[in-house]
Amino acid sequence: MKNDCKLMHLIIEMAKTLRFCQQDAVICEALTLHQYYILDLIAQKVRLKLSELHSLLLVEKSTTTRLVDPLVRHGLVVREKAEDDCRAINLRLTPKGEEAHRQVCRCMDGFVQSVEAHIPKAKRQEVYESVAVLLNAIKDACKKEWHQ
């Protein structure tokens, strides 16, 4: 295989392997990875403006709404009018949402430990750094090359 195709094949294989990251794939506690990420972002900030969530997820407003709606329907997140701006909406975890977040964190910790167990200890830091470099390169290329 030519060198210029090797990287693309690795990226494709990584995408196939990480298919659990797809928007509609359930990872733990009947939540998708995107839904867990939203819970995690809200948990970190306690109250998160819906407008901030768009930029954190790097998605359109309508997509953010579509991702948040099931969390609201299942009683994990509530929408509240922001005190400082009556047009703005804040998101907050409910007690049920806080518990779901804790459960998924435990589940994800088990998955991460399992992955780490398959990486030789002496190579782990190198792997993490290399994956971060690759991820940033892909993000930069997508911003510059494909979204002009």
Overall form = globular
Specify the helix fraction band. Answer: 55-70%
Major sheet attributes:
3 strands, antiparallel
Give start-end ranges of low-pLDDT stretches. Answer: none
What is the SS-derived class? alpha+beta
Residue fraction in strands: 5-15%
The number of domains: 2
Assembly type of the chains comes to single chain
CATH class of the largest domain: Mainly Alpha
CATH architecture descriptor of the largest domain: Orthogonal Bundle
> What pattern of helices and strands is seen along the backbone?
HEEHEHHEEHH
Mean pLDDT: 85
What's the CATH H-level homologous superfamily of the largest domain?
Winged helix-like DNA-binding domain superfamily/Winged helix DNA-binding domain
Strand order of the largest sheet: 3-5-4
Count of DSSP strands? 5
Instruction: Measure the end-to-end span.
Output: 30 Å
How does this model look, in words?
This protein has six helices and five strands. Strand 1 and strand 2 form a beta hairpin. The model has no long low-confidence stretch (mean pLDDT 85). The chain is an alpha+beta fold. The chain has helices at residues 3-17, 33-45, 50-57, 61-73, 95-117, 124-146, and strands at 26-28, 31-32, 47-49, 77-81, 89-93.
Notable traits:
single chain; 148 residues; alpha+beta; Arc Repressor Mutant, subunit A; 3-stranded antiparallel beta sheet; globular
In short, what is this structure?
By secondary structure, the chain is an alpha+beta fold. It has 2 domains: 26-117, Winged helix-like DNA-binding domain superfamily/Winged helix DNA-binding domain (Arc Repressor Mutant, subunit A, Orthogonal Bundle); 121-148. It has helices at 3-17, 33-45, 50-57, 61-73, 95-117, 124-146, and strands spanning 26-28, 31-32, 47-49, 77-81, 89-93.
